[in-house]
Amino acid sequence: MNLSFFIAYRYFRSKKKRNFITVLSRISMIGVAVGTMALVIVLSVFNGLEDLVRGLYASFDAELKIESKMGKSFLAETEWLESISEIEGVEVLTEVIEDNALFKYRDYQHLARLKGVSENYMQQGRFEKGFTWGNLSLGTENQPKAIMGRGVGFFLSVDLDNDLDLLQVFYPKAPRSAGSIDPSQLYNKGILKPGAFFSVEKEFDDNYILAPIGFVSKLLNYGQKRTALEVKVKEGANIQDVKARLISYLGEEFTVKDTDEQHAQILRTIKIEKLFVFLTLSFILAVASFNIFFSLSMLAIEKKKDNAILFAMGAKESLIQKIYLKQGAIIGLSGAVIGLVLGFLICWIQDRFGIVTLGISSSIVDAYPVKMIWSDFLWTSISVFAITFFASFRPAFIASKVTPTDL
C-alpha cells in the first residue's frame, strides 16, 4: 500500500480518541455528502422537466416541420406534396394553414390562433400526453368542427353539449383602395361547431383552435397556399436522417425543424437555468468545504510532532503534502460516494413512486419528474474532487514546512 495513503487513512480511521478534529472531519464528510446529494437531485429534476416539456410539445407539434424561409406561405401543389410523401422515412405528411383570427361564441370574443390541418392530422399521434374532452373529429365539409384548447374554451365559455350555439370565426380581408360603408365587406366569416377540448400545455391551451384545412383555406383565401407542412417519421427511422433527406430535396428555400428546434428558446432557457443552479450549488459546496480546510489545518497542528519525526527519518516535503492531500481526498471521496448513492436512491424512489407531488390536481403529471443522466454524476464528482483538492492544498503546504528543529 502507498505510504502516504496508508498514513492518511490511519488518521481518518483513528479511534484512539474522539477529539474535536475527528468530529470536524466527520462533519466535513457529511457536508460534502449533502451537497453532492443536492446537486444530483436538482440536476435530475431539471432533466425531468426538460423531458416533460419535450413530451408536452411533441403532443402538439410535429416531429419535423417544413416552413418557407421567405414569406409566410408557399404554394403546395398536389404533385409536389406527393413527391415529399414518397421520401424515405416519411410516414404522414400533414398540410397546415395557420394565422390569427377573431372568435365569437354567444356574447364572448377572443383572439386566438386558427390552425387548419388536413384529415391525417390525428394520424400523427396528437395529444397522447395530454387531456381531451369530446369527439376529436374535424367534422365534414358541410359541418366543420373545431378542436379547441381548454383555455380558449374557458375564455369563450364554450359548452360542448350545446348544439344550438356555434363558433363564429372572423378574418380580415386584404385591404382595397376603395372604402366600403358596409363593415361586413371588411372581413370573412365562417362557422364552426365546437367538437372537443384539448389540454397539453398552457401556451397551446390558451391560443389554439384546430379546424379542417378546407374551411381555413376558404376563410383566409389561401387556395393551394400553405404556411407549413408537418411530417411524421416512420417507426424505426432516424429523424435526423429523414430531416437531411428533406433538406436536400427541398433546397435552400425551406427550413426543416425537429421538435427541439421548434422550441429552441425555452429548451435553451432550461439548460441555462440548470447550468446556473449547478454553479450555485457548487459554490455552496465550496463554502461547506471550509470545514475540510479547518479540519486539515488543525490536524496538521496536532500532528506536528509526527511530521517532524517523518522528516527526521528522511521523508521529503512531497510525502507530507501527499498525506494531507489524500486525507482531504478521503474525506471528499467518502462524502461524494455517500451523496451520489443517496441522490440516486432518492431520484429512483421519486421516479418510481412519485413521493413529492406537484400539488396541482389538473396537471399532466402528478409528481415532480426526474431523469438521471450519467454525465450529471460525472460532473458532480469532478466538481467535488476539485473543491476538495483546493481546500486541502493549503493545509498540506503548511504541514510540509515543519522541521525537527521546530519542536
Structure description:
Residues 281-404 form the ABC3 transporter permease C-terminal domain. One of its GO terms (cellular component) is plasma membrane protein complex. Pfam families: FtsX. InterPro entries: ABC3_permease_C, Lipoprotein-release_system. The structure is a single chain. The chain is α+β, with helices and mostly antiparallel strands and 407 residues long. It folds into 2 domains: 3-57 and 266-406, no CATH class; 62-262, no CATH class. The protein has helices at 3-13, 20-58, 78-85, 150-156, 202-205, 213-220, 239-250, 259-262, 264-288, 290-302, 304-312, 317-353, 374-399, and strands spanning 64-68, 74-75, 90-105, 108-117, 131-134, 145-149, 167-172, 187-199, 208-212, 225-226, 228-233, 254-258. Strands 3-4-9-6-8-7 form a 6-stranded mixed beta barrel. Strands 2-10 form a two-stranded antiparallel ribbon. Helix 12 packs antiparallel against helix 13. The longest helix is centred in the N-terminal third of the chain and has 39 residues, at 20-58. It is elongated. The two termini are 30 Å apart. The relative contact order is 0.20. The mean pLDDT is 84.
